[in-house]
Amino acid sequence: MIVAIRFWEINVLHGISLMATKRRAIRSAPGVTFAKLLGTGRGETFTPRDADSRTWGLLVCLDDEVGLDAFNNSGFIRSWGAPPQFSADLAPIASQGEWAKRQPFIASAPPSAEGRVAAITRARIRPSEALRFWRETPPVTQALKDSAGLLGAIGIGEAPIGLQGTFSLWESGADLRAFAYGSPAHQRAIELTQSRNWYSEELFARFHVLRAEGTLGGRTISAK
Fold first, then answer.
1. pTM of the model
2. Is residue 106 over pLDDT 70?
3. What is the pLDDT of residue 104?
4. ∠ CA(190), CA(175), CA(41), 5° rounding?
5. Which domains, from first to last, does the chain contain?
């Protein structure tokens, strides 16, 4: 499996039009086993005021490199009207939880794979817990931004409220683990997630980075 994630900086009206009209087209594209169109944000509070109205993206799961090449050259990609601002192709290492009642990422890279890694977190926030969640988020996002080895991060979402997540790119798996298990703010968030039952659905996935380049969360990522 290859997971492709792309972000474009485009006119807000064009972005809204793509979100409204292309959902069926992306899901039915040849070789695509799972797909999501994404709005983006700064990932600071996970409220609507974080939203970046000029940056939009997509995530697709494909069977192999042949399917990826076909998707990259498809009319669907051309409909965005410009090259992506950021693009990455990923091989899943591990995934826990569900996204839209599915487990979309099938491990295809060994846990010991060296080099850059990426992480996707995604959650459906219970409405009754939204205010508490938003109050606890800023320390975690600040800890993320200050983490050693972070190459770039961006907030992602399928809706302005309630369906939020983060895509982050790291220099190594050790750097990602240091944040996940060594940050006091992140550890507190994990504990509160368990005690408060913040989410009705959640997912965390790690990936080996096959290719990545462009601008992610204001940081320039060189090809490697």
1. 0.86
2. yes
3. 94
4. 65
5. 2-221 (3.30.70.100)
